[in-house]
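Entry 12.
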Amino acid sequence: MQHPRIVGIDYGTKRVGLAISDPMGWFARPLGTYSPARALDVLRELHQREGIQQIVIGWPLTLEGKEEEATQKVAAYIKRIKKVLPDVPVLRWDERYTSEVARELILQAGLPRKKRREKERVDAVAAAVILQEFLNSRTSS
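Predicted 3D structure (tokens):
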């Protein structure tokens, strides 16, 4: 395991979008969308195969920056992640507007309308947006 990856997560109660960094930690790419339980399996497998240096999970604050019920659900999922990967740090990342950015990126990619409406695609791209924002913040400081 020369270059453990950084993983981005867009959590939802039905679907979890996952994204992964390149080995150097510069670029994020969507990995896929899974059920919450299957996403934990995918994380475990990825950690065994390539190593995970860190996980960045979207923290769903309100537009005013407050925590509500959605943040409690993400906090519970973080606990599940830590049971599966106790040695991997999990960072909460403000995810306000990431779904809108993801939809815009999908639109710019020129996908047909039917594919743009697939919620699974939006979740995976949103995870990549969360991860890319984090990766960009590391290089800009």
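Annotation: The two ends are 27 Å apart (CA to CA). The domain at 5-140 is CATH 3.30.420.140 (Nucleotidyltransferase; domain 5).
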